[in-house]
Amino acid sequence: MGLTIVQAGDPVLRQLARPLQAGEITGSEIQDLIRRMQKAMYDAPGVGLAAPQVGIPVQLAVIEDRADYHKEISPAQLAERERRPVPFQVIVNPTITSTPAIGNAVEFYEGCLSLAGFTALVPRQRTLRVECLDERGKPKVIEASGWYARILQHEIDHLHGVLYIDRMRSRTFGSVENWKRFWKDKPIEEIRSELNAQASL
Ligand code: ZN
C-alpha cells in the first residue's frame, strides 16, 4: 500500500524529527521507507518529501527534480529560478553549515504536498551548504544554488517542524488555482508591489 501524505494540522508536521543512527539507515526498515517515499514523491508528484510528511518523525528526506517536470515552465522562468534537474537523492540528519549572507535571499512562489492546493511567495537563501548523511549512512556535503537550494531548505525545515507558511509573505498566500489565474506570469517585483508584500530582507 502506498504512503499517505499528511496535511497541515497533523502534529507530526510540527515536531522536531529524531536523527537517525548510521547503523539504522542501512537497516531494512529505513531502506524500505526510502523506496516507499521515492514512490510517493513520484506519484504526488513533488520534488521533495520529508519523512514527517508521511507521519514518521525521523530526519530523512528524498529529493528529485526531473527534467520532465520542467516542460510546462518557460525557459525564462526556469532561468530566473535557476531550476535545473536534480537526480534522486536521500538526505539524513542534515544541517545547514553556511552563514546566511545579506543579499543572498530570493523570493519565489512555493508549494508543499502537506498544504495541498495552496502557494505563496517564500524568501529563501539562493545558495547554501548542507552537511548530512546519504542513504548508506555515509557523510556528504552538498553545495547547492537556485531551486535545488530552495528544495533543500524546504525539506530541512520539515525535519524541524517548520512549514513554508512560517516564512512566507503572508499577503501572497492563496490557492494554486488563483495563482495560475492572477499571478503566474507576472514578475515577482510587480506581484510584491500589487499585493503590498514588500521584501524586508
Ligand atoms: Zn513541504
Gross CATH architecture: Alpha-Beta Complex
Low-confidence stretches: none
Nearest-angstrom radius of gyration? 17 Å
- Give the amount of beta strand, in percent: 15-25%
CATH topology: Peptide Deformylase
Separate helix tally: 6
Number of strands: 8
Overall pLDDT level: 95
**Overall 3D shape:** globular
Distance between the termini: 44 Å
Hetero groups bound? zinc ion
For the sheet with most strands, the description reads:
5 strands, antiparallel
Number of domains: 1
Order of helices and strands: HHEEHEEEEEHEHH
| Adjacency order of strands in the biggest sheet | 1-2-3-6-7
Instruction: Give the % helix.
Output: 25-40%
Question: Structural class of the helices, strands and pairings?
Answer: alpha+beta
The CATH homologous superfamily name equals Peptide deformylase
CATH class group: Alpha Beta
Describe the structure in your own words.
The structure is a single chain. The protein has about 200 residues and is of the alpha+beta class. It has one domain (about 10-200): Peptide Deformylase. Helices cover about 30% and strands about 25% of the residues. The protein is built from six helices and eight strands; from the N terminus they run ααββαβββββαβαα. The protein has helices at about 20-25, 30-45, 75-80, 145-160, 175-185, 190-195; strands at about 50, 60-65, 85-95, 105-110, 120-125, 125-135, 140-145, 175. A five-stranded antiparallel sheet has the order 1-2-3-6-7. The radius of gyration is 17 Å and the shape is globular. The protein starts with about 20 loop residues before the first helix and ends in a 7-residue tail after the last helix. It binds zinc ion.
